[in-house]
Amino acid sequence: MTIDTPTQTVLYTLEQAIKTYRRLCQQNIDRVVDKLTVDQALILIVLDKHPALSQQQIAELVFKDKASLTRIIELLVQKGLLTRGMHSADRRKFELHLTPQGQHTLAQLTDTILLNQRTALAGLSEEELVQFHSTLQKIIANCSTPAPCA
């Protein structure tokens, strides 16, 4: 296959798929919850499943730098979806907890999250999904290992 431009690579197509999926997610979130971004919803989901995670761990899970995560958390606190308090053992850290409103918001999004996943993966067999996941893991491993100098 001859590649004339970067937009003809499989990695460009992968990025296009991710961005298209995020747009779909945002459109569907907007139908259910007012003024909540995909990133904000993702952080609520992570905290609901793993309430003891530090902000650093959350940032790594959602691919955000520390400053971006801090801004998102502040917005979630302002919206009344999260509380932020001092960590009981380490005053340099914060403890984050979903509020009842945050839990209600997540409950509203459950069907939307499943719809987004079903829509994105429609027409793919279980075998194709397993192979796709395996291929993505190989790409991640390749990119995680420094390339030798030419």
UniProtKB/TrEMBL annotation:
Q: What's a BP term from Gene Ontology annotated to this protein? A: response to stress
Q: Is the keyword Transferase assigned to this protein?
A: no
What are the entry keywords?
DNA-binding, Transcription, Transcription regulation
Q: What is this protein called?
A: MarR family transcriptional regulator
Q: Name one GO molecular function term.
A: DNA binding
Organism (species): Hymenobacter qilianensis
Q: Per its UniProt entry, which superkingdom is the organism in?
A: Bacteria
Residues forming the HTH marR-type domain are 7-141
Which InterPro entries does the UniProt entry name for this protein?
Answer: HTH_MarR-typ, MarR/SlyA-like, Tscrpt_reg_MarR-type_CS, WH-like_DNA-bd_sf, WH_DNA-bd_sf
